[in-house]
Specification:
With about 270 residues, the chain is of the alpha/beta class. It has 7 helices and 13 strands. The chain has a 6-stranded mixed sheet with strand order 6-7-8-3-9-10, with helices on both faces. Strand 1 and strand 2 form a beta hairpin. The structure holds adenosine-5'-triphosphate.
Length: about 270
Amino acid sequence: MKPVVSLRGASLQFGKRALWEDLDLDIRPGEFFAVLGPNGSGKTSFLKVLLGLQDLHAGRAMLGGVPVERGSNLIGYIPQQKSFAPDTPMRARDLVGLGVDGHRWGMRLRMSNANRRIDELLEVVGASDYAKVPVGLLSGGEQQRLRVAQALATDPEVLLCDEPLLSLDMHHQQAVSALINKQCREKNSAVVFVTHEINPIIDYVDRVLYLAGGSFRVGTPEEVMTTEVLSELYESHVEVIHANGRIVVVGLPDATTHHHVHATAGEAA
Ligand SMILES: Nc1ncnc2c1ncn2[C@@H]1O[C@H](COP(=O)(O)OP(=O)(O)OP(=O)(O)O)[C@@H](O)[C@H]1O
């Protein structure tokens, strides 16, 4: 199966700080791919590259076989959770409707078709009961379900999720991650899921990209989430404990954002 996301020799650098270098990666349709790492390691920047919002320092990034571009209709995007202001003049179904009315359809759907699709999506995310409630009055978890519905509206080939579980309680974390997994398995969307915490999605993840200290590792959770690999990435002894199907990382260094610094001519690294 052809990959839907491809990176070749991809490097991202800000000033002299390398976030990652020489990354070769293929993500295939129907793959659940997690991007993990500490604060400032470059997870959001990785998504921005795929969104066409961040140029690589070197190498190339392809989406659906063509170079990434802003506004690609292959992408669905669940942004980091921020609450809507209480007086946001929009009902839950209007928010989902923004996704349904989007570019993928070429022309606006006829009103009745659009309404049917919105109802379907609200049902999928379990939000039918509050369809007509102003979004600003909904809880964080309820709002996040709507963002998922909006991102799923076009059946995207690539679903980019930026910490979609942040500040959700455990129940809503499970509901939202199960929904994203459903899209991945049933609709064959490739999911790129940025997170600090692998445990809420541990049952779904096929492979991870772990970013830390200006370096990275790609592989299955079993391959990457080990004492040996993470200690190497953090350049410090880190203990990875597997217990009851969960992964606990102990002893993460405080300064988790030590990046590799590139020396320019005449300078020491
Ligand atoms: N446009 C930019 N110019 C300079 N530095 C940047 C730019 N964008 C991001 N950075 C830096 O790159 C690093 C990685 O940022 P990024 O937001 O990708 O990290 P992250 O892994 O998503 O972090 P967090 O977990 O805290 O959200 C940060 O130190 C950030 O300050």
